[in-house]
Amino acid sequence: METPRRLIYDLDLPELEQAFLAAREPVYRAKQVWQGLYQQLWNQPAQFTNLPKTLRDWLARTFIFQNLTPDQVLYSTDRETRKTLFLLPDERAIEAVLMHYDRRKTLCISTQAGCAMGCVFCATGQMGFKRHLTSGEIVEEVLYYARMLRSEGEQVTNVVFMGMGEPFHNYDATMSAIHRLNHPDGMNLGARRFTISTVGLVPVIKRFADEKSQVNLAISLHAANDVLRSSMLPINRKYPIQELMAACREYIEKTGRRLTFEWALIQDVNDSVETARELSNLLRGMIAHVNVIPLNPTHKFAGKGSTRERAAAFKAELEQAGIPCTVRMRRGIDIQAGCGQLATQAEKSTA
What we know:
The protein is of the alpha/beta class. The protein folds into 2 domains: 59 residues, DNA polymerase, domain 1, CATH 1.10.150.530; 282 residues, TIM Barrel (Alpha-Beta Barrel). The protein contains 12 helices and 14 strands. Strands 3-4-5-6-9-10-11-12-13-14 form a 10-stranded mixed sheet. Strands 1-2 form a two-stranded parallel sheet. Strand 9, helix 6 and strand 10 form a beta-alpha-beta unit. The radius of gyration is 21 Å and the shape is elongated.
């Protein structure tokens, strides 16, 4: 029986070297392939012209070089945001977004098809959990955009794991993907170029803290009391705010790193000055920064993004309490760039 081909991006360098040794090929060839994948950004065996043809043929027989098939590509009106819907081999849909911010080229990457967290205002949460992505599929999202940017004379500068899925629910694959993209003989993207966003899986936050990684951590908070947060983020019933804050303080103590708290600002729900005051009391004494972004609308959630005036007042209240706050621009609303919005439609059409 023929051994099934593996997605080549699922292998780290030692695993790739083992595959070459098992095939009785020189181990140095594995590093050539690794550099071809992550430095030259090659994605077909035929492109590896530094290898003998017999070895290129072996690569084609042994490995898969593409699991993600671009299905739809949408540009925002200002051309600053590009969203790609990918189909997986099992017809599941995921999406990734490229955002241009002056010199930064930031990718928003998915770690799961769907999501099990059920956050009420999130299109991916409304979709439900389909499956985890493999580490190689996560890597492939980044490489897809890296090739596109290189063709335009640009390069990826930042990767945020804020697309579809809860990265800490797929922890091992997420961290393996980061290690692969961070590898000094590959893309060599610095650890601080990555940001992982979590809704607050407390045991995994503690595990991440123990690793003392330089990767940035962001907490999707969105409410400062348990009643409101539990109504918006069901995970809060399992890990309530005080437990979450204790894990956050432990993370800061162990790593000495600043935490980012994300806050989707929803008109007349969590955008009042009083709510900002409640949040400032919650975060007092922490090395923290609050990222506020008016909500991206979704079909199944009636709430809408806050006005510019209410966002400014919210920010002012936090800053008066000594907590740094940034009001982020909503990006790509005209192309439904909020995570999961396009994939939800794709799932419906294939159902």
